[in-house]
Amino acid sequence: IPVDPFDLVIFGGTGDLARRKILPGLYRRFWDGQMPPEARIIGAARSEMDEASYRAFVRDAVTEFVSKRKCDSELLDQFIERLSYVAVDARGEDGWEQLAGMMRDGVVKAYYFSVGPSLFGDIAERLHRFKIADDDARIVVEKPFGHNLETARALNATLARHFDETQIYRIDHYLGKETVQNLMAVRFGNMLFEPLWNAQYVDHIQITVAETVGVGGRGDYYDRSGAMRDMVQNHLMQLLCLTAMEPPSKFDPDAVRDEKLKVIRALEPVEPHDIVRGQYRSKDESYLVDVENKDSLTESFVAMKVHIANWRWNGTPFYLRTGKRMKERVSEIVVRFKEPPHSIFEEDTGQSANELTIRLQPNEGMDLTVTIKEPGPGGMRLIDVPLDMTFAEALGEEAADVPDAYERLIMDVIRGNQTLFMRGDEVEAAWAWTDPIINGWEAREDKPKPYEPGSTGPEEALILLHKDERRWRELR
Ligand code: BG6
């Protein structure tokens, strides 16, 4: 279904995120017929560039990041015609009148701030002063949304001076991933899971976001952030919220976000012995070299045990882990159910607990292990078999060719649907929980434990679960 016609301005329109994600994503939506032919995209950045050069830049980006099958088409020419460019000085006066003159009446106006947070205030103020944004305009802001609670509050206050909360779309691209939304469909669209989704039946939950890449060319940013700020405060917290929240009364932005906020507010402070920080390091490859800071105490890995102090989850721990340069790239949520209270079978028949795995990437899908009798005449031997629902297999390759998180979220902005975006109070509550943990490390000059690149993280992370007689689901 096509969205309404729009004018989308991308500040940072020549940047890496625009090149890799935003522009290719918009093209895929155009290719699919969701972006209407009347829509326009205006790249805005500091450098002087004419329209033809910007269009050539976008054509290259689309050709590089969109599958060839979709680029071999005159649709790409039509898409390119939807593009314009304006040079603006975010801290000065240049370019803003021109941008104001380019915006059309009667279409949805959206402004994507694909720039560092230090420019959010300057751009918001100019959009207002030059009357570029009307009361219905939407702004989209990228993470990191602040560095701690204080800076996040200041950013919220700056944006609130010029825009209402209903106009602000804070992106956490994990919320745009297909399986994340499926998590809500599974929980609240079936009768099978929700009655068991609590401390009485769930032994524990694991949330893993493991990456094989290192810090790449972002060493400077990353070394000031670390895994806690870069991944836990946002992506892992969001996954935790969607897994743990109460059923919202409807699938509407505030109903969903109210429930997520309650989860964050119910998180108990984490004790130092329930958290492990790591840094990848070997003879050949080291985090310290990658970030060009030989004294860095920043973590590239975190594992932690988290408790939610409410009726539903009292006594069921959530184990979170995330890291760079790990063995496997995988993002998944594992719900480990309790063992049956009494076994009618003889000991060591192989009976074990059910496990529901919700895989965000790769091979998006779900599987549920169930215990059955091993076929054959060998007596009552039990085995676990997976009820595998890999979407590509279950729905066919085409249906599983799901939109990238960014393109889905941008379309939601145009539709005016904030459900999959973070509200200001949610972001602040997440920082209020992570700040004391990070401040504690800084005060103690806590040293991250070394781990071998390409491994499962420091040994201490394994011990964190062993102490509780549990094990991480294996990385392959
Ligand atoms: C970003 C982090 O938000 O998410 C990166 O800043 C990380 O450090 C990335 O690599 C992971 O996203 P995805 O979609 O590749 O899992």
TrEMBL record:
Record carries keyword NADP: yes
Catalytically driven reaction(s): D-glucose 6-phosphate + NADP(+) = 6-phospho-D-glucono-1,5-lactone + NADPH + H(+)
Pathway: Carbohydrate degradation; pentose phosphate pathway; D-ribulose 5-phosphate from D-glucose 6-phosphate (oxidative stage): step 1/3
Sites where the protein binds substrate: H173, K177, E211, D230, K324
Occurrences of domain Glucose-6-phosphate dehydrogenase NAD-binding (ranges): 9-182
Enzyme category, top tier: oxidoreductase
Binding-site residues for NADP(+), renumbered to this chain: G12, G13, T14, G15, D16, L17, A18, R19, R46, K143
One Pfam family here: G6PD_C
InterPro entries: G6P_DH, G6P_DH_AS, G6P_DH_C, G6P_DH_NAD-bd
Function: Catalyzes the oxidation of glucose 6-phosphate to 6-phosphogluconolactone.
Family per similarity comment: Belongs to the glucose-6-phosphate dehydrogenase family.
Protein name as annotated: Glucose-6-phosphate 1-dehydrogenase
Organism: Maritimibacter dapengensis
